[in-house]
Design brief:
With 128 residues, this protein is mainly α. It contains four helices and no strands. Helices cover 52% and strands 0% of the residues.
Length: 128
């Protein structure tokens, strides 16, 4: 199980980096305007219209992989994939905290009662 989680994590990181790179390579809608005034470098790699189709489809594939891997990691982390859909409540499995007994409200004033968690003999706190 940890092997599958690590593999999905690596695949998610690689797809995220690829998607970021593909988005940064794409040019905006205003980039064609600059090419018409003499830049001429807009269609040098993929052709005049091929870059938009190739890059946008590649970005869509990377985004689909990223979201599918994210969904798979969330299913594995909740434990529903291993237990066949049975809901597991982690709060019911936890041990309750220890209950500390306290004095009744009217028994003593707050200034005369030492804190229960303070060790005895600590300098500045009187021991009784």
């Amino acid at each position: 199980m940890p092997f599958l989680t690590n593999l999905l994590f690596i695949l998610q990181i690689l797809s995220a980096i690829a998607m970021i790179g593909l988005v940064l390579i794409q040019h905006g809608k205003g980039a064609d305007m600059g090419a018409s005034f003499g830049s001429g470098a807009s269609g040098s790699l993929f052709g005049a219209t091929g870059s938009a189709n190739f890059l946008s489809r590649s970005t869509a594939v990377c985004a689909t992989i990223f979201f599918a891997v994210t969904l798979g990691m969330s299913v594995l982390s909740t434990g529903r994939g291993a237990q066949g859909g049975a809901e597991v409540n982690r709060l019911d499995q936890a041990t309750p905290p220890a209950v500390v007994a306290s004095a009744p409200v009217g028994a003593a004033s707050a200034a005369s009662v030492a804190p229960a968690s303070a060790p005895s003999g600590v300098q500045g706190i009187p021991t009784r």
